[in-house]
Amino acid sequence: MFKANMKQLIVRTSVVVGLAGTASVATSQSADASVDMNKVNAAEKNQNQAQSETTSESNTVSQEQSTSTTVRFGDRNDTVREVQEKLGISADGIFGPQTEKEVREFQANNGLSVDGIVGPATKKALDNGGQVASASEESTTSNETASNESVSNETASNETASNETASVSTASTSESDSSSNEVNEEVSTSVAGTSVTSAPSNSGGLVGVAQSQIGAPYVWGGTTPSGFDCSGFINYVYNSQGISIPRTAQAIYDASAKTSNPSPGDVVFFTGTYNSGSYITHAGIYVGNGQFVHAGSSGVQTASLSNSYWSSHYVGAGSLR
Protein backbone atom coordinates (compact mmCIF):
# COMPACT_ATOMS: atom_id res chain seq x y z
CA MET A 1 0.00 0.00 0.00
CA PHE A 2 2.81 2.39 0.94
CA LYS A 3 4.67 1.65 -2.30
CA ALA A 4 1.51 2.26 -4.36
CA ASN A 5 0.97 5.70 -2.74
CA MET A 6 4.59 6.69 -3.36
CA LYS A 7 4.31 5.69 -7.02
CA GLN A 8 1.20 7.86 -7.46
CA LEU A 9 2.95 10.83 -5.80
CA ILE A 10 5.95 10.53 -8.14
CA VAL A 11 3.70 10.36 -11.21
CA ARG A 12 1.73 13.46 -10.12
CA THR A 13 4.94 15.43 -9.43
CA SER A 14 6.32 14.56 -12.87
CA VAL A 15 3.13 15.78 -14.54
CA VAL A 16 3.27 19.14 -12.70
CA VAL A 17 6.96 19.67 -13.61
CA GLY A 18 6.27 18.78 -17.23
CA LEU A 19 3.40 21.25 -17.45
CA ALA A 20 5.56 24.03 -15.97
CA GLY A 21 8.29 23.36 -18.53
CA THR A 22 5.77 23.43 -21.37
CA ALA A 23 4.43 26.82 -20.19
CA SER A 24 7.96 28.24 -20.04
CA VAL A 25 8.73 27.15 -23.61
CA ALA A 26 5.46 28.55 -24.91
CA THR A 27 5.95 31.92 -23.21
CA SER A 28 9.51 32.30 -24.58
CA GLN A 29 8.13 32.45 -28.10
CA SER A 30 6.73 35.97 -27.54
CA ALA A 31 9.31 37.59 -25.27
CA ASP A 32 13.05 38.09 -24.94
CA ALA A 33 14.98 37.32 -21.77
CA SER A 34 17.36 39.98 -20.51
CA VAL A 35 21.11 40.10 -20.84
CA ASP A 36 22.88 39.20 -17.58
CA MET A 37 23.86 42.68 -16.35
CA ASN A 38 26.11 41.16 -13.67
CA LYS A 39 28.41 40.01 -16.46
CA VAL A 40 28.23 43.44 -18.11
CA ASN A 41 29.08 45.18 -14.85
CA ALA A 42 31.95 42.78 -14.20
CA ALA A 43 33.34 43.48 -17.68
CA GLU A 44 33.05 47.22 -17.12
CA LYS A 45 34.87 46.93 -13.77
CA ASN A 46 37.73 44.98 -15.34
CA GLN A 47 37.92 47.41 -18.22
CA ASN A 48 38.02 50.44 -15.92
CA GLN A 49 40.82 48.86 -13.88
CA ALA A 50 42.84 48.27 -17.04
CA GLN A 51 42.29 51.84 -18.20
CA SER A 52 43.55 53.28 -14.91
CA GLU A 53 46.99 51.79 -15.67
CA THR A 54 47.51 53.76 -18.90
CA THR A 55 47.91 57.47 -19.64
CA SER A 56 46.84 57.28 -23.29
CA GLU A 57 44.66 60.30 -24.07
CA SER A 58 43.22 58.54 -27.13
CA ASN A 59 41.53 55.82 -25.05
CA THR A 60 37.95 57.07 -24.51
CA VAL A 61 36.40 53.76 -23.42
CA SER A 62 34.22 53.82 -20.29
CA GLN A 63 34.23 57.41 -19.07
CA GLU A 64 32.08 56.70 -16.01
CA GLN A 65 35.01 56.77 -13.57
CA SER A 66 37.12 59.42 -15.28
CA THR A 67 37.17 63.22 -15.39
CA SER A 68 37.67 65.41 -18.43
CA THR A 69 38.04 69.08 -19.27
CA THR A 70 35.53 68.57 -22.08
CA VAL A 71 32.25 66.76 -21.34
CA ARG A 72 29.25 66.01 -23.53
CA PHE A 73 26.08 63.92 -23.73
CA GLY A 74 26.59 60.42 -22.28
CA ASP A 75 29.58 61.29 -20.05
CA ARG A 76 29.48 60.33 -16.37
CA ASN A 77 32.13 61.91 -14.13
CA ASP A 78 32.97 64.57 -11.55
CA THR A 79 33.37 67.27 -14.21
CA VAL A 80 29.76 66.71 -15.24
CA ARG A 81 28.73 67.05 -11.60
CA GLU A 82 30.61 70.36 -11.31
CA VAL A 83 28.92 71.66 -14.47
CA GLN A 84 25.49 70.67 -13.14
CA GLU A 85 26.17 72.45 -9.85
CA LYS A 86 27.13 75.66 -11.68
CA LEU A 87 23.99 75.38 -13.83
CA GLY A 88 21.87 75.02 -10.69
CA ILE A 89 20.37 71.66 -11.63
CA SER A 90 20.39 68.23 -9.98
CA ALA A 91 24.06 67.18 -9.74
CA ASP A 92 24.12 63.43 -10.39
CA GLY A 93 27.26 63.42 -12.55
CA ILE A 94 25.36 62.08 -15.59
CA PHE A 95 25.33 64.19 -18.76
CA GLY A 96 21.77 63.42 -19.90
CA PRO A 97 19.13 65.28 -21.98
CA GLN A 98 18.31 67.80 -19.22
CA THR A 99 21.95 68.73 -18.71
CA GLU A 100 22.48 69.12 -22.46
CA LYS A 101 19.41 71.38 -22.68
CA GLU A 102 20.66 73.59 -19.83
CA VAL A 103 24.14 73.80 -21.38
CA ARG A 104 22.67 74.90 -24.73
CA GLU A 105 20.60 77.59 -23.03
CA PHE A 106 23.63 78.82 -21.08
CA GLN A 107 25.71 78.98 -24.27
CA ALA A 108 22.98 80.87 -26.13
CA ASN A 109 22.56 83.35 -23.28
CA ASN A 110 26.30 84.02 -23.11
CA GLY A 111 27.16 84.37 -26.79
CA LEU A 112 28.93 81.01 -27.03
CA SER A 113 28.80 78.47 -29.82
CA VAL A 114 25.64 76.46 -29.04
CA ASP A 115 26.65 72.81 -29.40
CA GLY A 116 25.62 71.38 -26.02
CA ILE A 117 29.25 70.43 -25.30
CA VAL A 118 31.11 71.87 -22.32
CA GLY A 119 34.51 72.74 -23.79
CA PRO A 120 37.17 75.16 -22.45
CA ALA A 121 35.23 78.34 -23.28
CA THR A 122 31.93 77.13 -21.82
CA LYS A 123 33.73 75.79 -18.74
CA LYS A 124 35.48 79.14 -18.30
CA ALA A 125 32.18 81.01 -18.62
CA LEU A 126 30.57 78.72 -16.03
CA ASP A 127 33.50 79.24 -13.66
CA ASN A 128 33.14 83.02 -14.09
CA GLY A 129 29.41 82.94 -13.43
CA GLY A 130 28.48 83.58 -17.06
CA GLN A 131 31.15 86.15 -18.03
CA VAL A 132 32.40 85.28 -21.53
CA ALA A 133 35.77 86.43 -22.92
CA SER A 134 35.09 85.57 -26.56
CA ALA A 135 32.09 84.15 -28.41
CA SER A 136 34.33 82.27 -30.88
CA GLU A 137 36.75 80.79 -28.35
CA GLU A 138 35.24 77.27 -28.60
CA SER A 139 36.33 76.87 -32.27
CA THR A 140 39.62 78.81 -32.44
CA THR A 141 42.92 77.09 -33.17
CA SER A 142 45.91 77.35 -30.87
CA ASN A 143 47.46 80.01 -33.14
CA GLU A 144 44.30 82.10 -33.08
CA THR A 145 44.13 81.79 -29.28
CA ALA A 146 47.70 83.06 -28.95
CA SER A 147 46.86 85.94 -31.27
CA ASN A 148 43.73 86.84 -29.29
CA GLU A 149 45.73 86.98 -26.08
CA SER A 150 47.98 89.67 -27.58
CA VAL A 151 45.31 92.07 -28.90
CA SER A 152 45.21 95.58 -27.51
CA ASN A 153 42.72 96.81 -24.92
CA GLU A 154 41.08 98.99 -27.53
CA THR A 155 40.51 96.06 -29.93
CA ALA A 156 39.21 93.86 -27.09
CA SER A 157 36.78 96.63 -26.11
CA ASN A 158 35.46 96.89 -29.68
CA GLU A 159 35.04 93.11 -29.94
CA THR A 160 33.11 93.05 -26.67
CA ALA A 161 30.75 95.74 -27.93
CA SER A 162 30.29 93.84 -31.20
CA ASN A 163 29.53 90.60 -29.34
CA GLU A 164 26.94 92.33 -27.18
CA THR A 165 25.24 93.75 -30.28
CA ALA A 166 25.15 90.34 -31.96
CA SER A 167 23.98 88.38 -28.89
CA VAL A 168 20.26 88.79 -29.67
CA SER A 169 20.52 87.39 -33.20
CA THR A 170 22.94 84.67 -32.03
CA ALA A 171 20.44 83.46 -29.43
CA SER A 172 17.57 83.38 -31.93
CA THR A 173 19.44 81.47 -34.63
CA SER A 174 21.68 79.25 -32.50
CA GLU A 175 19.33 76.27 -32.32
CA SER A 176 18.98 75.90 -36.11
CA ASP A 177 22.72 76.54 -36.68
CA SER A 178 23.61 73.95 -34.05
CA SER A 179 21.30 71.34 -35.58
CA SER A 180 22.85 71.90 -39.01
CA ASN A 181 26.42 71.68 -37.66
CA GLU A 182 25.68 68.53 -35.67
CA VAL A 183 24.22 66.71 -38.65
CA ASN A 184 27.32 67.51 -40.72
CA GLU A 185 29.80 66.51 -38.02
CA GLU A 186 30.48 62.78 -38.09
CA VAL A 187 32.92 60.82 -35.96
CA SER A 188 34.14 57.31 -36.73
CA THR A 189 35.21 54.77 -34.14
CA SER A 190 36.11 51.08 -34.24
CA VAL A 191 33.76 48.58 -32.61
CA ALA A 192 34.64 44.90 -32.78
CA GLY A 193 36.51 45.54 -36.05
CA THR A 194 33.62 47.51 -37.58
CA SER A 195 33.56 51.22 -38.36
CA VAL A 196 30.45 52.97 -37.06
CA THR A 197 29.29 56.49 -37.77
CA SER A 198 28.39 58.73 -34.86
CA ALA A 199 25.85 61.51 -34.85
CA PRO A 200 24.29 63.90 -32.32
CA SER A 201 22.05 62.35 -29.69
CA ASN A 202 19.00 64.37 -30.74
CA SER A 203 19.13 63.57 -34.46
CA GLY A 204 15.79 61.78 -34.83
CA GLY A 205 12.46 60.76 -33.38
CA LEU A 206 13.58 57.19 -32.70
CA VAL A 207 16.58 58.35 -30.68
CA GLY A 208 14.53 60.89 -28.75
CA VAL A 209 11.89 58.34 -27.77
CA ALA A 210 14.55 55.76 -26.83
CA GLN A 211 16.36 58.22 -24.56
CA SER A 212 13.09 59.39 -23.02
CA GLN A 213 12.60 55.88 -21.58
CA ILE A 214 15.96 55.69 -19.79
CA GLY A 215 15.25 54.56 -16.25
CA ALA A 216 12.15 52.49 -17.13
CA PRO A 217 12.22 49.11 -15.30
CA TYR A 218 12.91 45.72 -16.86
CA VAL A 219 9.96 43.32 -17.09
CA TRP A 220 10.26 40.04 -18.96
CA GLY A 221 7.78 40.20 -21.83
CA GLY A 222 7.15 43.92 -21.17
CA THR A 223 6.29 46.31 -24.00
CA THR A 224 5.30 49.53 -22.17
CA PRO A 225 7.07 52.20 -20.07
CA SER A 226 5.87 50.38 -16.95
CA GLY A 227 8.34 47.62 -17.92
CA PHE A 228 10.27 46.46 -21.03
CA ASP A 229 12.25 43.48 -22.17
CA CYS A 230 14.89 44.13 -24.83
CA SER A 231 12.79 43.60 -27.97
CA GLY A 232 9.66 44.98 -26.29
CA PHE A 233 11.56 48.26 -25.79
CA ILE A 234 12.61 48.36 -29.45
CA ASN A 235 9.03 47.64 -30.56
CA TYR A 236 7.75 50.49 -28.36
CA VAL A 237 10.23 52.99 -29.85
CA TYR A 238 9.57 52.02 -33.47
CA ASN A 239 5.79 51.82 -33.00
CA SER A 240 5.85 55.39 -31.62
CA GLN A 241 7.04 56.48 -35.06
CA GLY A 242 4.44 54.41 -36.92
CA ILE A 243 6.92 51.65 -37.84
CA SER A 244 5.78 48.06 -37.31
CA ILE A 245 8.56 45.52 -36.63
CA PRO A 246 8.74 41.85 -35.48
CA ARG A 247 8.47 41.05 -31.76
CA THR A 248 11.66 39.15 -30.88
CA ALA A 249 15.32 40.17 -31.24
CA GLN A 250 16.04 37.30 -33.65
CA ALA A 251 13.05 38.18 -35.84
CA ILE A 252 14.03 41.87 -35.84
CA TYR A 253 17.54 40.88 -36.95
CA ASP A 254 16.16 38.67 -39.73
CA ALA A 255 13.90 41.49 -41.00
CA SER A 256 16.53 44.26 -40.93
CA ALA A 257 18.78 45.49 -43.72
CA LYS A 258 22.27 44.78 -42.41
CA THR A 259 24.74 47.67 -42.31
CA SER A 260 28.38 47.97 -41.27
CA ASN A 261 27.95 51.66 -40.40
CA PRO A 262 24.98 52.03 -38.02
CA SER A 263 23.19 55.37 -37.97
CA PRO A 264 21.21 56.77 -35.02
CA GLY A 265 17.92 54.88 -34.84
CA ASP A 266 19.33 51.63 -36.26
CA VAL A 267 19.22 48.47 -34.14
CA VAL A 268 22.45 46.90 -32.87
CA PHE A 269 22.49 43.14 -32.22
CA PHE A 270 24.36 40.85 -29.82
CA THR A 271 24.76 37.10 -29.40
CA GLY A 272 25.63 34.80 -26.51
CA THR A 273 24.43 37.15 -23.75
CA TYR A 274 22.43 34.31 -22.19
CA ASN A 275 21.63 30.68 -22.97
CA SER A 276 19.17 30.66 -25.83
CA GLY A 277 18.29 28.63 -28.87
CA SER A 278 18.45 31.81 -30.96
CA TYR A 279 21.57 33.31 -32.55
CA ILE A 280 20.53 36.85 -31.57
CA THR A 281 20.00 37.10 -27.81
CA HIS A 282 19.94 40.87 -27.19
CA ALA A 283 19.45 44.16 -29.07
CA GLY A 284 19.36 47.90 -28.52
CA ILE A 285 18.88 51.19 -30.39
CA TYR A 286 21.99 53.01 -31.60
CA VAL A 287 21.94 56.70 -30.58
CA GLY A 288 25.30 57.93 -31.93
CA ASN A 289 28.78 58.51 -30.52
CA GLY A 290 29.31 54.77 -30.09
CA GLN A 291 26.39 54.57 -27.63
CA PHE A 292 23.17 52.54 -27.63
CA VAL A 293 20.08 52.43 -25.41
CA HIS A 294 18.74 49.03 -24.36
CA ALA A 295 16.54 47.27 -21.83
CA GLY A 296 18.78 45.14 -19.62
CA SER A 297 18.06 43.44 -16.32
CA SER A 298 18.69 46.77 -14.56
CA GLY A 299 16.15 48.60 -16.75
CA VAL A 300 16.48 50.89 -19.77
CA GLN A 301 19.94 52.46 -19.85
CA THR A 302 22.70 53.74 -22.13
CA ALA A 303 25.74 51.57 -22.85
CA SER A 304 28.89 51.84 -24.96
CA LEU A 305 29.67 49.57 -27.88
CA SER A 306 33.33 49.97 -26.91
CA ASN A 307 32.75 48.23 -23.58
CA SER A 308 34.67 44.95 -23.58
CA TYR A 309 31.55 42.91 -22.81
CA TRP A 310 29.42 44.39 -25.59
CA SER A 311 32.21 44.43 -28.18
CA SER A 312 32.88 40.73 -27.55
CA HIS A 313 29.20 39.84 -28.14
CA TYR A 314 28.51 42.37 -30.94
CA VAL A 315 27.09 40.92 -34.17
CA GLY A 316 26.30 44.00 -36.22
CA ALA A 317 23.57 46.53 -36.96
CA GLY A 318 20.42 46.63 -39.05
CA SER A 319 18.10 49.27 -40.44
CA LEU A 320 14.31 48.91 -40.35
CA ARG A 321 13.39 52.23 -41.97
Structure description:
With 321 residues, the chain is of the alpha+beta class. It is 45% helix and 14% strand. It contains eleven helices and ten strands. It has helices spanning 2-28, 37-51, 78-87, 97-109, 120-127, 142-149, 153-184, 205-212, 230-240, 249-255, 308-313, and strands spanning 187-191, 194-198, 223-224, 227-228, 257-259, 267-270, 282-288, 291-296, 299-304, 314-319. The strands form three sheets. Strands 5-10-6-7-8-9 form a six-stranded antiparallel β-sheet. A two-stranded antiparallel ribbon has the order 1-2. The chain has a two-stranded antiparallel sheet with strand order 3-4. α8 (205-212) crosses α9 (230-240). The N and C termini lie far apart (68 Å).
Task: Put the structure in a nutshell.
This protein is α+β, with helices and mostly antiparallel strands and 321 residues long. It is built from 11 helices and 10 strands.
